TrEMBL record:
Gene3D superfamilies: MFS general substrate transporter like domains. It comes from the Bacteria. InterPro entries: MFS_dom, MFS_trans_sf, TM_effector. It is a multi-pass membrane protein. The chain crosses the membrane at residues 15-36, 48-68, 80-99, 111-141, 153-173, 179-199, 229-254, 266-286, 298-325, 378-402. Coiled coil: none annotated. It comes from Pseudotamlana haliotis. This is MFS transporter.
Length: 422
């Protein structure tokens, strides 16, 4: 049966093309992000400046999320993604020019920082469209019965790029400097655009084309809040990421606490993605849909413990292992959450549901970066990370106690229903 085939989704040609696009985009995006983090902290030596990067991205991403979901549900997905990638290339080109001495030789540090923040702000606006578009497109490429398998490989590709992008970015800073590292990012973005054009245009499945914006947005939000499995997964992950993310403070740990330089920074940044990628390879063979709610709670609890260990450590290899195990637990969480979203969401509402998810989970990464930067400014980097991990543990325990329905969530019957429907 298809659902037992660990390579079911990979047997679909367009899905493989989609994964190549996904890989190039995530590799370039994550590489660009850490290069900019490194550059900004090197210019300011202020951990709050790292938080500002997150704040600049979350403001447009959060405020535009629902409207972006409405547009995605109304438009053809392949061409919309191509438009998003084209706009992303302008951001990459702008950052490349901002780090070129020939261009900014006479610019003040403040001017350069403002321009970087402005491009990050534009990137946040753009990101509000990326998530819903990609989420909707993959559902049009693979049949419903292989959604869980597609979610595993899609997330695995994301994590693989998340491993190589930050690691290569860290080494590239030392090898060729920030400027030329950003040139590579621009090349990757353009490559992803060329690959994407190999995917055919897809039909628009929304029966309510031209529906008033307010009515459309209301329908999407109400659906999420009425679907307890989706709401629970989003809320739990949002709070965990908001308080448990230590990634934003890695430049501080790499430069001032562990003292491992840009190469060590790249390795630390890649460690969580290595753990998550390994987890996702395992889940391709061992589905985790049974007792999904309890498994999600246990995974995020383990994530919180890993973050606390990282915050307390001043030894490089211990910090590296802590981040690695945080990636393993986060990988389990990601696969379960993506499977819940794909299975529980109707085709015509994927853009709006994904947008709500980006408000809950995606934006919490950047808001978490600001929270980490602010708390690090107030109480020190190590204390801030430990505090965040402790809040994650508190959230998991509270959710498990007050929500027995979510604790008992099982996706086995949903998967069997999709299998029988096709």
């Amino acid at each position: 049966m298809a659902k037992k085939d660990p390579y079911a989704a990979l047997r679909i040609k367009e899905f493989n093309i989609f994964l190549m696009v996904r890989f190039a985009l995530v590799f370039g995006w994550t590489m660009q992000f850490i290069v900019i983090e490194w550059e900004v902290y090197s210019l300011t030596k202020d951990p709050l400046s790292l938080g500002v990067i997150g704040l600049m991205e979350i403001i447009p991403a959060f405020t535009m999320a629902l409207f972006a979901g409405h547009i995605v549900d109304q438009k053809e997905k392949r061409n919309l993604l191509a438009l998003c990638i084209g706009a992303f290339s302008l951001i990459s080109l702008g950052l490349f020019l901002l780090t070129w001495d020939v261009v900014v030789a006479d610019w003040s540090q403040k001017t350069i920082l403002v321009c970087i923040y402005a491009l990050v702000f534009f990137g946040g606006f753009l990101r509000s469209f990326f998530g819903p578009t990609i989420f909707s497109l993959v559902a049009l490429i693979v049949p419903k019965k292989v959604y869980p398998n597609a979610a595993t490989w899609n997330s695995s590709t994301w994590q693989m790029a998340g491993v190589l992008g930050p690691a290569f970015g860290g080494f590239a800073i030392g090898w060729m400097g920030v400027h030329w590292a950003l040139c590579i990012v621009f090349g990757l973005v353009m490559l992803s655009l060329l690959i994407l054009l190999q995917i055919e245009r897809k039909p628009v499945l929304n029966p309510k084309i031209g529906e008033p914006v307010v009515q459309s947005l209301k329908e999407g939000v109400l659906f999420v809040f009425k679907t307890k499995a989706i709401l629970g997964a989003m809320t739990l992950d949002m709070v965990a990421v908001l308080f448990g993310g230590a990634i934003a403070l890695l430049p501080v740990f790499a430069q001032d606490i562990l003292k491992v330089g840009s190469e060590g920074f790249g390795v630390l940044r890649a460690a969580p993605a290595v753990g998550a990628f390994m987890t996702m390879l395992v889940t391709a063979y061992i589905p985790i849909s049974r007792n999904a709610g309890m498994k999600l709670l246990v995974a995020i609890f383990g994530f919180g413990l890993s973050i606390i260990t990282f915050g307390l450590s001043s030894v490089f290899w211990i910090s590296l292992l802590a981040l690695f195990f945080s990636g393993i637990t986060d990988g389990v969480s990601m696969v379960i959450r993506q499977t819940i979203l794909q299975i529980k969401t109707p085709d015509h509402m994927r853009g709006r549901v994904s947008s709500v998810n980006s408000m809950f989970v995606g934006s919490s990464n950047e808001l978490g970066a600001f929270e980490s930067g602010l708390t690090a400014k107030l109480m020190g980097a190590s204390t801030a990370v430990v505090f965040g991990g402790a809040m994650t543990l508190f959230t998991v325990i509270t959710t498990g106690v007050i929500s027995p329905t979510f604790r008992k969530l099982d996706l086995t019957k949903d998967l069997e229903a999709h299998e029988n429907a096709e």
